[in-house]
């Protein structure tokens, strides 16, 4: 007790303003720890006859309290929820990883080992608690473009030896993105891109769930299943969907005892056993891709006798490795950061985007070294975790450990889970992932006027009156490109279209007014309501009358030249006036980068007007950075 109080007193008396940022953080953490110790001491010295503290119910959206601040009941509830969620999510991740392996033209073990390696590293060291990582569909779609189809289902395509160095290099590139602070560029992704991202992923997930309902005839052609088997699969899928969606809404305590997704799996497995007792059956995980004791442990890819390392010496192999690594890096970073935003919006707790990228880079380096296909954040499984109440690191870590346990030994249990039950769980995720409100926005974009939108109805729903057709177009294109190509192309297209739209609108906001002096010996141009930049630099000179203007011309602009195009436009203005024997003075009201100390001042700004990069006079003052006084109201 004395040590904790002394510790608190020493750190609490430190001068807050005299400490660097790192020491401030350390001091605050130490004070918080000391205060928690004092709280624990007070609890110990309370009367033993006092009633135990009731578990504090954590409301949705509140951050997780520290482990030391939880009561015993809260700790048990947290561990129970997170562990059960991790187990049930692993039930979905195993068959999903097998499906992604088939999509990527690699063996199932390649994807399964990547699932638990990437998932475990990111769960322990990532910056978004509650987010699931593993072998993803985005990675599989990219890898499939570099590998040929294998001769037999479940084998790897030709050139798979180039995949593992590519995954390792992609991890290194992710580390460079982390060092360069690339996570901050996720703010360039606007809401239309996010809507298209969610809608496209929902459609991709939905299309992937159709695979269990397809079969192959004797000629090898794909056909749809039918008859009793199809009916039983649809029944199990429907029961799983209804269980997961509506059981949590029952206002009874027993409905909250188990995660709804786990309860759906248990009920579906019981139905499968009942069906097989009557001589019927549906496909289970063991029927689609039976897990066995082969390839249960990962080894470095260059020690695996199934791989021919001579492929690495092929002409063009190095270029293919670099190209594939760059695409995997972009896809992984973009999808993980966007999934981070989605999960953050769902669980309402903060995230560290830089740690998301750094952990993912390290995980891909390890996965590639051990013969895995790499991976990134998985929005579908993360949605399951978030919708079921998972917010900590325990559920993702449990998922990774369960996948590892299934691959290495506990696979007989998963072999009996019906595939149609997992399909039902994933379809519920599709329903919650798709932005259904965007459908009304798309319809509203087709209605010509706001008055007509106000009168239109979709059943009981009204169309949004305020609708931007360009945003609707961007969201629709991102959705379509996500389904047709991959996420990277879709996001890049969406960001480019939104940036072009913003630049176009901003270029038309700038207006220039002309005000001659009373004696007619000078004229003042005032640029307002916008910035001078590349979008309007080419037509900026049209506002000026070079021949009719008097000898002295003054240009007042709100902000300094923001890019090379703006600087070039001002130089052209000066040249036009100098060619006519006139003088142009540029006065900046608010500089883009005002100096806070003499060392921050640019050399040109400290020399006055003659030394300006525009060749213009800013002010007669000798201050490091000069801005003109505010213009009068009538200006």
Characteristic terms for this protein:
about 625 residues, 10 strands, alpha/beta, disordered C terminus
Radius of gyration: 31 Å
Q: Structural class of the helices, strands and pairings?
A: alpha/beta
Shape: elongated
Succession of helices and strands: HHHHEHHHEEHHHHHEHHHHHEEHHEEEHE
Largest sheet: 4 strands, mixed
Q: What's the total number of strands?
A: 10
- Mean pLDDT across all amino acids: 79
Helical content (DSSP H or I, runs of 4+)? 40-55%
Number of helices: 20
Instruction: Show unreliable segments.
Output: 1-27, 33-61, 594-635
Oligomer: single chain
Give the structure's gist in a few sentences.
By secondary structure, the chain is α/β, with parallel strands linked by helices.
Task: Describe the protein.
- With 635 residues, the protein is of the alpha/beta class.
- Helix content is 53%, strand content 7%.
- It has 20 helices and 10 strands.
- The strands form 4 sheets. A 4-stranded mixed beta sheet has the order 7-8-9-10, with helices on one face. Strands 1-4 form a two-stranded antiparallel ribbon. A two-stranded antiparallel ribbon has the order 2-3.
- Helix 4 (108-125) runs antiparallel to helix 14.
- The longest helix is centred in the N-terminal third of the chain and has 33 residues, at 72-104.
- It is elongated, with a radius of gyration of 31 Å.
- The protein starts with a helix and ends in a 45-residue tail after the last strand.
């Amino acid at each position: 007790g004395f040590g904790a109080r002394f510790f608190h007193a020493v750190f609490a008396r430190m001068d807050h303003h005299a400490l660097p940022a790192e020491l401030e953080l350390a001091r605050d953490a130490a004070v918080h720890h000391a205060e928690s110790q004092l709280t624990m001491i007070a609890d110990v010295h309370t009367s033993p006859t006092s009633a135990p503290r009731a578990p504090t119910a954590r409301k949705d959206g509140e951050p997780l309290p520290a482990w030391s601040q939880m009561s015993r009941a809260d700790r048990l509830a947290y561990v129970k929820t997170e562990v059960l969620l991790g187990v049930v999510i692993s039930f979905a991740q195993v068959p999903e990883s097998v499906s992604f392996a088939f999509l990527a033209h690699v063996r199932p073990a390649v994807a399964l080992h990547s699932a638990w390696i990437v998932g475990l590293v990111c769960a322990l060291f990532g910056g978004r608690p509650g987010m699931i990582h593993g072998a993803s569909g985005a990675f599989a779609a990219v890898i499939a473009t570099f590998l040929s189809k294998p001769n037999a289902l479940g084998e790897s395509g030709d050139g798979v030896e180039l995949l593992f160095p590519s995954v390792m290099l992609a991890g290194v590139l992710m580390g460079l993105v982390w060092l360069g602070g690339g996570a901050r560029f996720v703010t360039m992704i606007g809401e239309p891109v996010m809507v298209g991202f969610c809608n496209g992923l929902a459609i991709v997930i939905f299309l992937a769930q159709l695979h269990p309902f397809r079969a192959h005839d004797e000629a090898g052609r794909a056909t749809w299943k039918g008859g009793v088997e199809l009916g039983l699969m649809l029944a199990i899928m429907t029961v799983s969907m209804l269980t997961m969606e509506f059981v949590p809404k029952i206002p009874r305590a027993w409905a909250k005892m188990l995660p709804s997704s786990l309860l759906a799996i248990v009920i579906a497995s019981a139905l499968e056993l009942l069906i097989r007792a009557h001589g019927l059956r549906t496909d289970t995980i063991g029927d689609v891709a039976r897990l066995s004791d082969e390839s249960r442990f990962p080894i470095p890819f260059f020690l695996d006798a199934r791989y021919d390392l001579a492929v690495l010496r092929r002409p063009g192999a190095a270029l293919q490795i670099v190209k594939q690594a760059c695409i995997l890096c972009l896809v992984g970073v973009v999808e993980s950061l966007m999934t981070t935003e989605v999960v953050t919006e769902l669980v309402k707790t903060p995230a560290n985007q830089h740690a998301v990228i750094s952990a993912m880079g390290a995980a891909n380096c390890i996965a590639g070294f051990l013969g895995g296909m790499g991976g990134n954040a998985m929005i579908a499984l993360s949605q399951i975790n978030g919708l079921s109440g998972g917010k900590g690191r325990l559920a993702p870590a449990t998922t990774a450990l369960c996948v590892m346990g299934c691959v290495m030994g506990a696979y007989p249990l998963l072999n009996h889970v019906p595939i149609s039950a997992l399909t039902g769980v994933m379809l519920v995720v599709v329903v919650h992932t798709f932005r259904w409100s965007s459908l009304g926005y798309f319809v509203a974009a087709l209605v010509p006027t706001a008055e007509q939108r106000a009168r239109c109805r979709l059943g009981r729903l009204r169309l949004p009156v305020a609708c931007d057709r360009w945003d609707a177009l961007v969201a629709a294109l991102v959705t379509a490109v996500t389904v047709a190509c991959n996420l990277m192309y879709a996001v890049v297209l969406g960001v480019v279209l939104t940036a072009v739209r913003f630049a176009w609108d901003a270029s038309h906001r700038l207006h220039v007014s002309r005000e001659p002096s009373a004696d007619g010996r000078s004229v003042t141009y005032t640029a307002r309501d916008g910035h001078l930049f590349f979008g309007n630099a080419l037509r900026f000179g049209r506002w000026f009358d070079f021949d009719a203007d008097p000898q002295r011309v003054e240009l007042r602009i709100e902000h300094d030249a923001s890019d090379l195009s703006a600087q070039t436009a001002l130089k052209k203005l000066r040249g036009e006036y100098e060619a006519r024997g006139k003088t142009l003075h540029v006065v900046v009201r608010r500089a883009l980068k005002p100096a806070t100390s003499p060392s921050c001042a640019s050399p040109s700004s400290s020399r006055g007007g003659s030394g300006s990069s525009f060749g213009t006079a800013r002010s007669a003052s000798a201050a490091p950075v000069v801005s003109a006084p505010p213009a009068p109201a009538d200006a």
